[in-house]
Here is the input.
Amino acid sequence: MNHLDEELRIALSRKEPPPGFAERVMAAIPVPERRRSRLSRWLQDATPWRFRFSWAPATAVLVIAALGAGSFEYVHGRKRRQDAERAKAELIFALELTSAKLQATKARLLRHKGGNL
Amino acid sequence: MPPGDAGNDAFGLAVLGDRTAFADLVRHHQSMVFSLAFHFVHDGAQAEEVAQEVFLELFRVLPTLESGAHATNWLRRVTTHRCIDHLRREKQQPRIALEDVAEPACLPQAETIGGDTFLMERLRKLVSTLPEKAREVVILRYQEDLTPSEISAVLGMPVNSVKSHLHRSLTVLKEKLERLRVEL
Here is the structure.
């Protein structure tokens, strides 16, 4: 049996698995959720600062967007009001001019027909 | 450093949840687990599948194990059990291995196949044809160099049964090997 013993030891000697075996095993093991200390959990759950800090960037973006939209609206509104004032002034001027022309025409007609109108 | 120290260190840290230590533990035991599976199922891909399954199970049960030596024995026992489960599943859903498709018309002479002699390969194949219990015993005896009482402790089998399996297996293997030598 001694010869067979030796042959079996050689035939059944340990073999290395294919390269990257341990990495494949580790990849198949789920990563556990990070464990937090009791203090850190208490801080995260109880303090309002966490809430404020997490919402601060979103709030800042909203405020900036609202300010931008407001100032855009203000500038455009002012321009519209100025345009309306200018149009109103031009209309009044045109009406005054027309009225003056009509007055002049009326005076001319009265002179021409001897004042019977 | 005495053998097993690296495994023990890795075991201590891995139990505490250190993933790097668990990876070291896998590297420390990978050749043992892979070889046990390979000699049992006689197929590299299937052996890797079984070995991965065993290490995933080790990760789950690690906190229940007491020491590095306990983990080593647990790995030996569970690997042989998973191999048996695997082979039973394979019997229900057989897969055709490439080597089984075409049998060579004549046996090649004793030559080197992948850095190993043809005779050694035939001997491994013969071991893989032994009955399950006998195969477990022979692989643990010659791969892991365990004594019959150590094998008995790993497999939870009486020492006399281990010795009996070993004796009968060696007789069968010797006969088959002699026949193979005559054919060559």
The first strand of chain B starts at residue 112 and ends at 113. Residues 9 and 155 of chain B are 26 Å apart (CA to CA). Chain B touches chain A through 37 residues (CB under 8 Å). Chain B has two domains: 1-93, 111-184.
